[in-house]
Amino acid sequence: MFQEITDKLDAVFRRLRGQGKLTESNIADALRDVRRVLLEADVNYKVVKQFIADVQAKAVGREVLKSITPGQMVIKIIFDELLHLLGESHVPLKLGHSFPNTVLLAGLQGSGKTTLAGKLAVFLRQRGNSPLLVAADVYRPAAIQQLQVVGSSIGIPVFAQVESDVIKICQEALDYARKNMFDTIIVDTAGRLHVDEAMMDELIAIKTLLQANEVLFVADGMTGQDAVNTAKIFNDKIDFDGVVLTKMDGDARGGAALSIRAVTGKPIKFIGVGEKSDQLEPFYPDRIASRILGKGDVVSLVERAQSAVDAETAHKMQQKFKQREFSLEDFFDQLQQIKKMGPLQDLMGMIPGANKMLKGMQVDDRGLIQAEAIIKSMTPQERRSPQILNGSRRKRIALGSGTRIQDVNRLLEQYKVLQKMMKQMKQGGGLARKMPFGW
Questions:
Q1: Residues 137 and 211 sit within 8 Å (Cβ to Cβ)
Q2: Where does CATH 1.20.120.140 sit in the chain?
Q3: Which residue, among 211, 219, 350, has the nearest Cα to 294 in the 3D structure?
Q4: Is the C-alpha dihedral spanning 191, 192, 193, 196 positive or negative?
Q5: Angle (CA) 14 19 24, round 5°
Q6: What is the pLDDT of residue 424?
Q7: In terms of CATH architecture, what is 101-294?
Q8: Peptide bond preceding 70: is omega within 30 degrees of 0, i.e. cis?
Q9: Spacing of C-alpha 78 from chain mean position
Q10: What pLDDT sits at residue 107?
């Protein structure tokens, strides 16, 4: 997420290092490059123009403190402006005391509304709510069945009827939720290939009927300014409450995220960061601004770790570390926990400086899959006592896992490094207890 824009901005900041003062000349040169980076990321040109003007007004003439460089000063100014652009602070869902609360999802066809409905239901269930999914798309073939499949996969009930009157469906869903004690309904509405008046009128009617607590515009984060333009039209017509950007784990350049609030005046509330049902994150402007500038996002990383690893598993692993009993079986368990946290490339973006240190290296989930295959090809005894892995055993493991002997050797070296780290942290006074997985 945002990797391309992060790399390009870092190159701009590097050129400012070593200069003693921020002058109109060097600021103009840097901001010319920043403008190009933002436009290439498909940020709305009016937003870029205002952003550059605001940064320039704050940067020109600033004295550089002895403890920081001009590049650091510009980064701080740009961070502040990015934060302002993205919305200053997190805006949560407005779920009040009405029963049931209603969340209405709107957007174009293909933006990911149905998948998001399931993710949002999981998100709310994890926070103690009792959600009900409502199939209100009677136009797209198999749309109702798709939502039923999503609901079945996550264990969330779906209200669906063979009915062409969407307003009637929503009214009956409301009555059903009240009778069956569902405190929140999530309505998956029809999308279109383009914006049309009939669709807007239908959305307005549904919003009025349900007295929706939240109307969320769902935008494909990979479509850049197209998503922003569509969002403005939707907002002018139905006055939605917030935005959800989907598919942000793909090749999104960041233009939608950096433009949509400035253009619509409405906050981004969630971003979809993967295909799995739990890969939906509340949008925190400060964390995203930090990631865009290559400063990582440790808070989100820790939150992912805490949600992926249960307390009992973490406690058992801590005990093993204390007793220095960390085997390849435990290493395998750790790989499983890391996979639960999401794509490895995304996790690297949350660690300050990680992408810079790993620049040019292939960082993806294939390495985790290969490591799992190698460990699974070992016998229980070999996993518990890897010191017995001689040449013939390693050859057998490589054949069984479809890898090379060099790959097996590399994994064992990584395991030894982890053991060494564990030993150092134990000598360092219990640092392991503070880590997400116990290490």
A1: no
A2: 3-86
A3: 350
A4: negative
A5: 95
A6: 57
A7: 3-Layer(aba) Sandwich (3.40)
A8: no
A9: 22
A10: 86
Which residues, other chains included, contact 300 with Cβ-Cβ below 8 Å and sequence gap of 6+? 281, 284, 287, 350
Specify the pLDDT at position 410: 85
Can you give the pLDDT at residue 304? Answer: 53
- Judged on CB neighbours under 10 Å (0-12, 13-18, 19+), 133 is buried
Nearest C-alpha neighbor of 271 from the set 211, 335, 356, 342: 342
Residues β-bridged to residue 177 = none
- For 275-305, the DSSP string reads SSTT-EEE--HHHHHHHHTT---HHHHHHHH
Please, which residues bridge with residue 134 across strands?
Answer: 159, 187
Homologous superfamily, domain 300-434 = Signal recognition particle, SRP54 subunit, M-domain (1.10.260.30)
Give 10-residue mean pLDDT values along the chain (439 residues): 75 70 76 88 86 83 53 78 86 84 88 90 91 89 90 92 87 92 91 74 89 89 78 87 83 73 89 84 85 61 52 57 64 68 56 48 63 88 86 92 89 76 53 37
Closest residue by Cα to residue 137 from 164, 117, 116, 168? 164
Element (H, E) at 24: helix 24-40
**CA separation for the pair 315, 320 (Å, rounded):** 9
CATH number 3.30.160.20 is the correct assignment for the domain at 3-86? no
Domain with CATH 3.40.50.300 in the chain: 101-294
Q: Do 75 and 58 form a contact (C-beta atoms < 8 A)? A: no
For the entire predicted model, the pTM comes to 0.68
Q: Are 70 and 19 in contact (CB under 8 A)?
A: yes
**Residue intervals in the chain for CATH 1.10.260.30:** 300-434
On whether the CB atoms of residues 180 and 128 are closer than 8 A, the answer is no
Question: H-type helices in 61-196, by residue range?
Answer: 70-86, 113-126, 143-154, 166-179
Q: Residue for token digits 């850049």?
A: 224
